[in-house]
Each structure stands twice: as structure tokens, then as C-alpha cells.
Amino acid sequence: MNDILVRQSLNSHAVIYIEGFNKAGECHVYFNKNLVALGIPSNGKADAMYSLLLAAYMSNQAVSIRVDDTKVDNDGNCIIQDLRFNPGL
Question: What is the reported pLDDT for 9?
Fold first, then answer.
């Protein structure tokens, strides 16, 4: 995870930027920075997902993220469907 953005104007609860992508299906990729933007859904799981991502970011731990690239927010960012902390377990 490269960055986490929380902003009132976003359609998603928050957006994370993940580096190391050259292709991500239909998800929006910032090719000049090799980043993909993924939205945290604005639903009952949003706070839990955001907390988990923030904990992983602060502790420099890996997470496993699954998206469905047909589900995007109004900004064109794919929405996170599933999230797992410590994916190697």
C-alpha cells in the first residue's frame, strides 16, 4: 500500500493507492506512478476495512485485496470486495 486518502468529496469511504501495477483489469491505474486506486465501499463494512488497512499501513504488513473490476465508484475506482490481513496465514 502506497497511500490512504480520506476526503469528504469522494464517493467511496476512502481510497487507497497500491503500487506495482501495470494492469488491473478495468480498475483505474495511474501509469506514470504505477499505482492503482481502490475505493473502500460506503457501507457497513467501511469502518472495519478502513481500520484494517490503516493498521496494515502503519505496521508495514501485507494485505490481500480482492476487487470486482465491474464494480466501480463514480470516480472510476474499483471498490474493494474482500480484504485480508496477514494473507500468508
Answer: 47
Give 64-80 pLDDT, tens digit per residue: 888 888 888 877 788 88
Angle among Cα 29, 30, 35 to the nearest 5 degrees reads: 75
Nearest 5°: phi and psi at 53?
-65, -40
Around Cβ 74, how many Cβ atoms within 10 Å? 9
Is the C-alpha dihedral spanning 65, 70, 73, 76 positive or negative?
Answer: positive
Q: How many residues does the chain have?
A: 89
* Residue among 53, 45, 43, 48 nearest 5 (CA): 53
* H and E: helices and strands count for the chain: 1, 6
Report pTM.
Answer: 0.70
